[in-house]
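Cross-posted from the bioinformatics board.
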Amino acid sequence: DIVMTQTPLSSPVTLGQPASISCRSSQSLVHSDGNTYLSWLQQRPGQPPRLLIYKISNRFSGVPARFSGSGAGTDFTLKISRVEAEDVGIYFCTQATQFPHTFGQGTKLEIK
Amino acid sequence: EVQLVESGGGLIQPGGSLRLSCAASGFSFSTSWMHWVRQAPGKGLLWVSRITSDGSNTNYADSVKGRFTISRDNAKNTLYLQMNSLRAEDTAVYYCVRDWYHTKDYWGQGTLVTVSS
């Protein structure tokens, strides 16, 4: 199985400041079709997960421009340019390149 | 608007069976792959199973293989998860999730399954 490792597991951030979450996979996430199926999800308290970023760097419909994704191969990053109060929650990276699909442990974003 | 509404969760004794349903609307269900993903209380996400659009191909996590069966009824726009031989460690919120070109794009609100005597 592909293991997804996120750092940090907790990130206290000041409102208006940037935040960054790293995700590392135990194997390359490049699929045989050439795509890299790495996504980022946001889970606000009491809510189901919501898709933010797909295929490394593509923002999903309705996702604010302050969210961005980057990376390649086995190393990926989610960045929030200026954190807002509504960004509080847990962020997960996930891969769909190989079965079983796997998720990172989650990074809890909280406001200082 | 894409909507996924799960039902069928509840309290069940260890060794028991339960069938979850997911009613889909707002998109072409019959051409979409679908997943079940679960989340134990206060824990992370665990992929459970996937089914292709016509139901001909399925995949399972090792922890549920042989006990859970994913299926669908495209005429009813409904996804199912039959869960047998339930264990305490199956206790979780179960989410129905749409697959969009290898991306889990829309998630239901989830249904809670509690396995306890």
